[in-house]
Amino acid sequence: MKQTSPASNPTQKPTKVPKPTPELQEQVRRRAHEVYEQRGREEGHGLDDWLQAEAEVTQQQTKNAAA
Question: Residues 20-54, buried b or exposed e (16+ Cβ, 10 A)?
């Protein structure tokens, strides 16, 4: 199956990803550290912690913006 990129498929709109602000990055960093602490400071999960924190912080911001 051939995959198409948004540029080659005019019916599909590209998703705009805003550039993270320093405040957002700091919130994600703090949350990622909390996740690391909750895991018992187990090494080797930095990316997982960051992605989880980023998803949580972004979701919370979306909820706050909708309210």
Answer: eeeeeeebbeebbeebbeeeeeeeeeeeebbeebb
Our separate counts of H helices and E strands in the chain read 2, 0
- Max CA pair span of the chain: 48
What number of residues does the chain have? Answer: 67
Q: Which of 54, 50, 47 is nearest to 17 (CA)?
A: 54
Distance CA 28, CA 23 (A): 9
Q: pLDDT tens across 4-57, in order?
A: 555 555 567 666 666 789 999 999 999 999 999 999 999 999 999 999 999 999
Global pTM reads: 0.69
